């Protein structure tokens, strides 16, 4: 690290890396500006390039406030309240050394254990991963219930994944359903809609009328649920901006 810089009131850490690339470039992620300088460059040119790229990166962040989208911090902070799959929990974050990071659902308490040496930039992502791992059995039970009640598909694998652009996916060949892990923070009706949507794909591949008729069997109010996702989906999750 080369210290930090404040842009629009937000603190960014600076990182300089000599890399095997031919040209230098800067990336901005999780409030870290990383500047890569070709390893073969002489020290003088490397310094000039570093300041040029730093200047460019700072100008970019100033002009594109959304570039800060990745600089998110967890809203699952110690003492906060979270509703996960429709159930309210008080979040307790425990920092421990040498322990196995994990999230445990206890009555009314979501206990999250992370190690003291977790990098701040990785913490939010790790928390999301641990919480979705702990929530997976509950999600699996809902998939099984909806499947046996309305669809009767052969599903061998259900997973929660961090996805950027989709709420879920179904694979016929893998007999699997993947759901966006952000859905555990959505109202349960919305989670159930996405489950029904993916299960309906086991019967109809496309989004034809026949497909929506399948979805309707399980979720007659599916239009409302879709509207909710379109309107509120962006803000779901363990993360929020700034
Ligand atoms: Zn679909």
What would you say this structure looks like, in words?
Helix content is about 35%, strand content about 30%. It has helices spanning about 45-65, 120-150, 190-200, 210-220, 220-230, and strands at about 5, 10-20, 25-30, 30-40, 70-75, 80-85, 85-95, 100-105, 110-115, 155-160, 170, 175-180, 240. It is of the alpha/beta class. The model is unreliable at about 65-75 and about 240 (pLDDT under 50). The protein has two domains: about 5-70, no CATH class; about 75-240, Metalloproteases ("zincins"), catalytic domain (Zincin-like, 2-Layer Sandwich). About 25% of the residues are buried. Zinc ion binds near residues 197 and 201. Zinc ion binds near residues 197, 201 and 207.
State the major sheet.
4 strands, mixed
What is the H-and-E element order? EEEEHEEEEEHEEEHHHE
- Indicate how many domains the architecture comprises: 2
Helix/strand/pairing category: alpha/beta
- Name every ligand kind in the structure: zinc ion
CATH class of the largest domain: Alpha Beta
Strand and helix layout:
Blueprint: E1 4-7, E2 10-19, E3 25-29, E4 32-38, H1 43-63, E5 72-74, E6 81-84, E7 87-96, E8 102-106, E9 109-115, H2 120-151, E10 157-161, E11 168-171, E12 176-180, H3 188-200, H4 209-218, H5 222-232, E13 239-241
Parallel strand pairs: 2-4, 7-9, 10-12
Antiparallel strand pairs: 1-2, 3-4, 5-13, 6-7, 8-9, 11-12
Bound molecules: zinc ion (ZN).
Zinc ion binds at residues 197, 201, 207.
């Amino acid at each position: 690290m080369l210290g930090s810089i404040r842009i629009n009131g937000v603190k960014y850490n600076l990182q300089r890396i000599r890399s095997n690339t031919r040209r230098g470039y800067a990336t901005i992620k999780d409030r870290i500006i990383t500047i890569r300088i070709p390893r073969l460059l002489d020290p003088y040119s490397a310094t000039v390039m570093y300041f040029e790229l730093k200047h460019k990166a700072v100008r970019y962040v100033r002009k594109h406030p959304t570039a800060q989208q990745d600089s998110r911090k967890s809203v699952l902070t110690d003492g906060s309240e979270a509703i996960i799959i429709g159930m309210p929990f008080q979040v307790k974050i425990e920092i421990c050394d040498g322990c196995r990071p994990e999230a445990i659902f206890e009555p009314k308490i979501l206990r999250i254990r992370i190690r003291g040496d977790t990098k701040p930039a990785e913490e939010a992502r790790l928390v999301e991963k641990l919480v979705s791992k702990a929530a997976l059995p509950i999600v699996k039970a809902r998939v099984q219930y909806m499947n046996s009640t309305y669809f009767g598909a052969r599903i061998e694998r259900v997973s929660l994944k961090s996805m950027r652009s989709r709420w879920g996916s179904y694979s016929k060949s893998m007999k699997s359903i993947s759901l966006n892990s952000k859905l555990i923070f959505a109202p349960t009706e919305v989670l159930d809609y996405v489950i029904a949507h993916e299960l309906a794909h086991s019967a109809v591949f496309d989004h034809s009328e026949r497909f929506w008729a399948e979805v309707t069997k399980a979720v007659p109010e599916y239009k409302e649920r879709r509207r909710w996702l379109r309107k509120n989906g962006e803000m779901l999750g363990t993360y929020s901006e700034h």
